[in-house]
Write a structure and sequence with these properties.
- There is one protein chain.
- With 361 residues, the chain is mainly β.
- It has a four-stranded antiparallel β-sheet, with no helix packed on it.
- The radius of gyration is 19 Å and the shape is globular.
């Protein structure tokens, strides 16, 4: 089995390959040196995998590149692949999320960006069109910037219903479309926003990440700014599943690619610290949709550990058994080839890790 791990950092993109069932890794890069790579994707819906990367250069600005040879070469269009219509008065700040569409539409790719907006591609991620209805939503003037900016950072196409789509943003919360993006409605009932006068508003939540259950597409999990929640009805209602975690704050939320009710979380202490609770490096896994949680520590650092794991810096691959990976702000990447039971170091001394994606090839 060949495994590929794509690692976006604050100073470029790195690729890790394993030919021995993820026991060892060869790390190459950086591609796009001295650019912030905040979003990556591995699209396997065609005969040949396509890699996609959203970069932000301090000199050239934001862009998006693709590779059809597993990162040996990259293609970036001469014109900007994503651009706000002139009527919006907005300019693209950053590509925060790249999400391949459902398998039934192999050329559809979504991009969530800053400021909070959505783009959709009909040619596999080479060119994009603006989704007007989300930008024109009456709530948009009230969406605010979180600490990391105001951006659509989660895009979850429905695996079986091409018209069903969920996005999440900080701040603003969860929004859903049932008609392919032509109209949108909020889906935040039960998610708290303790920083607002009404702690349970219709919108305005600082959602950090949303994941979809592998077996039940209407079961969703979210890590909020204070709060870990589950929805069993596609985001119409949410309830807390934070009991058993050392903190209800964090950024990452990952669902197992095949097993129902299995999710992963990396808690962080809230407030001014933003360190892992008790300064310990622990991934938490639930095998019962958040009813209980188990700390996973075998092979992870035992001493004081201070780096955080960002919202897209944790992922799972599609192998069997599944691999789970996370990268830190201090440039380490850890991987597990046994679904979190044990861990090993994949890469060290990288720039700060912003996003990771992995797949079996």
């Amino acid at each position: 089995m060949t495994a590929l791990l794509v690692i976006g950092t604050g100073k470029g993109l790195f690729l890790a390959r394993s030919e021995d069932d993820r026991a060892s890794w060869e790390v190459t890069g950086p591609h796009f040196p001295m650019t912030g790579v905040y979003s990556v994707a591995i699209d396997k819906r065609r005969g040949r995998p396509r890699l996609l990367a959203g970069m932000t250069s301090s000199h050239f600005g934001p862009s998006l590149s693709t590779s059809d040879d597993l990162g040996h070469s990259w293609q970036e269009p001469d014109h900007a692949p994503l651009a706000f219509p002139a009527r919006t008065g907005a300019t693209l700040g950053r590509v925060w999320q790249i999400a391949p569409g459902p398998a039934a539409e192999p050329e559809r790719v979504y991009a969530g960006v800053e400021p909070s907006a959505l783009f959709v591609s009909a040619d596999g991620g080479r060119t994009y069109e603006f989704v007007d209805a989300l930008w024109d939503h009456p709530h948009r003037p009230h969406w605010e910037a979180g600490f990391g900016g105001q951006a659509v950072h989660t895009v979850l196409p429905h695996p079986a219903d091409p018209g069903s789509l969920l996005i999440a943003m900080s701040t603003g919360g969860v929004y859903r479309s049932a008609d392919g993006g032509k109209s949108w409605r909020p889906g935040n009932n039960g998610i708290a926003a303790g920083f607002l006068p009404d702690p349970f508003p219709e919108y305005g939540q600082c959602v950090h990440k949303v994941a979809r259950d592998a077996a039940d597409p209407d079961r969703l999990y979210t890590q909020n700014h204070h709060g870990v929640y589950r929805s069993d009805n596609g985001g119409s209602d949410w309830r807390s599943i934070a009991d058993g975690l050392p903190s209800d704050f964090g950024f990452a939320m990952v669902a197992h690619p095949r097993r129902a009710d299995v999710i992963y979380n990396f808690p962080i202490t809230a407030g001014d610290l933003r360190f892992p609770p008790d300064e310990r490096c622990r991934v938490y896994r639930s095998a019962d949709a958040g009813a209980s949680w188990q700390p996973l520590t075998a092979g992870l650092p035992e001493g004081p550990f201070y780096p955080a794991v960002l919202r897209d810096a944790m992922c799972a691959d599609d192998a069997d058994p599944a691999g789970v990976y996370f990268g830190t702000r201090s440039g380490e990447v850890y991987g597990s080839r046994d679904e979190g039971d044990s861990w090993s170091l994949v890469a060290a001394h990288l720039p700060d890790v912003l996003c990771v994606r992995a797949a079996e090839l």
